[in-house]
Input
Amino acid sequence: MLGLVMLTGRGLGLRLPRRAQRPPRASMTTTGMVAAGAGYAAASLSCTFGVLLAVIAQAQATAGWAALLVVFAVYAAGAATVLLLVSLATAAAGTAATRYLAVLARHGTRITAVVLVATGAYLVWYWWPAAIGSTGGAAMGSTAWSAAVSIWIQNHTGTVIILAVAAVAATLAATVVARNTRARHRDATPDNDCCAPAPATIEEKHAR
Output
């Protein structure tokens, strides 16, 4: 319902505390970065809460504190890898990504509305058999597909790790190349404003 309302161009306002409305400082402090990460984690719970519950259940099924910590460490490493790839790719894209994002921001409300409608439709499709007491249907089909993907990942853990490391390395290399290219372009660009204009004499001022 919210997605359908937002498709009309309307949005929901959010009043932020006065402290949160201050412009960001030039350099982000460690406390600010931790706060931003905690805020991102809280906001993403709507998408990841089910996965997090599964990780918690898996951790509780392990024997000993060491195995429990390993489960959470692997989950955190996987999430951090995805965020690292996105962050580095955005940094490598530079101003081009910012320009395209600015264009998309004009239609942000309707894009969000489409995502909401699609997500709501999927949730209804997934949970409808359980709501009406059916033992098959969409939920069983999705569960079978999810189980197949999970089994494949477990059987090819080494391949998945190698691909993840290669993706991170490739993104890092692209970021470094893009930064060096921009630096060389900046150094090669001649400075047209090399000399400051000489101050006008009294005669020139009178003439003007």
